[in-house]
Amino acid sequence: MRRETKGWLDKAEEDFSTARDCLASRHFDASAFHAQQAAEKSLKALQIQLHGRFDKIHDLVSLAKALDAPNEVINCCLRLAPYYVITRYPDVGEPITKNIVKELLDDSMKVVKWVTQRL
User: Fold this and answer.
1) What's the rounded mean pLDDT across residues 30-38?
2) Distinct helix (H) and strand (E) counts, the chain
3) Which residues contact 94 (CB under 8 A, 6 or more apart)?
4) Which band of pLDDT confidence, cut at 50, 70 and 90, is reported for residue 118?
5) Structural domains in the chain?
């Protein structure tokens, strides 16, 4: 594994751990944001491993499609993608609940797991 790949994957795993910690402390917006970030950073890690670079975008669906991800992973990315913005602005979207965050964590885990299986 490339050193840069490992660095991005480590950051993805740290974001996923932070997302779980934020859920436990009922910081649902932060948890949702870190779940999205874990998926994004893991996809970029795989791009680095396969192509020596990553797309400098935040669109999870585009990142996943560029890696020929299966539909299940793309669907996870579709659900996670809005939380890059929703979590950072108080006037965007509906309140994020514990149940929403649990679903997002499941989606994020599926993306990260798919990436790690390909590395």
Assistant:
1) 98
2) 6, 0
3) none
4) very high
5) 3-118 (1.20.120.330)
